[in-house]
Amino acid sequence: SVPLGFFAGIGAAAQVGVLVKGSNYLEELNTIDTVVFDKTGTITKGEFGVSQIIAQGMAKEELLALAARIEAKSNHPIAKSIVSAYGNLKVEEIIGEYKEISGEGIVVNQGDSVLLAGNEKLMAHYQIDYKQEEEIGSHVYVARDGQYLGCIVVADQIKADSKAAIAKLKAGGIKKVIMLTGDKKENAYKIGNEVGIDTVHAELLPQDKVTKLEEALKGGKVTFVGDGINDAPVLARADVGIAMGGVGSDAAIEASDIVLMTDELSSIADVMSIAKRTRKIVT
Ligand code: ADP
Ligand code: MG
């Protein structure tokens, strides 16, 4: 097909909903052989719905209300889903020392009382004797003053075009597709399988994601695709960082080289084929 100059290449990318921050990134895209994806908000929609509430010694509504108050200040998609499931009531702020632990959850220290909402790792750190739930989804365990109060199960959905987008990348010559996530192995492997990921690394803390990306960089040229919630440093470290424009955080959009304005992963293969048609105009 017709070769494009660099400005035309950036224009063509814009037409498929992709913002390329500089012509050098189009050139770099031609050399990529490994695509590394974040899971939540990237392969999946990042819109969790509450699917179950398992309360221990209190009403379900009471557990949900407590969890919503603990999660009220968090921007994490899991936190937002719990707050919105509680209702569009104004969540009264928990007064206390609030701490968000990346990849684990929330701790609120009220002096005379400690509130926790988060995953298995958070419960283990605070030595809570919790009951592991087996329902499919992400589990937000809630505890107060060392006492386990129950679990809220939230579930996300795979984006409609994730599987097709990965197939398209492979058809276009990408050799390896990797997924990195802080989520549990069970969820991560199931999602990875469904969409055609070659290698899944799960239960990663934000710094572990950087380590895994650096390992991938030793094997070739790497692009990382993420929403920036807990992964902005990984975006910055990749040869080409691609951020979600819709659900993505401001930090992600800032740290990235390319932004997918529609969050559709199939536009990555589109911009890669535009990059192939783009060449430097020699003057
Ligand atoms: P991902 O890598 O899939 O984008 P994150 O690193 O953002 O996931 O989070 C990893 C895990 O940490 C989540 O699956 C969840 O179990 C837990 N987590 C993180 N933030 C919160 C929060 N605000 N409330 C409850 N759980 C949380
Ligand atoms: Mg994420």
UniProtKB/TrEMBL annotation:
Keywords: ATP-binding, Cadmium, Cell membrane, Hydrolase, Membrane, Metal-binding, Nucleotide-binding, Translocase, Transmembrane, Transmembrane helix. Belongs to the cation transport ATPase (P-type) (TC 3.A.3) family. Type IB subfamily. It comes from the Bacteria. It comes from Cellulosilyticum lentocellum (strain ATCC 49066 / DSM 5427 / NCIMB 11756 / RHM5) (Clostridium lentocellum). Its main location: membrane. This is Cd(2+)-exporting ATPase. It is found in: Cell membrane. The chain holds residues 409 to 691 of 751 of the full protein. One of its GO terms (molecular function) is metal ion binding. GO terms for cellular component: plasma membrane.
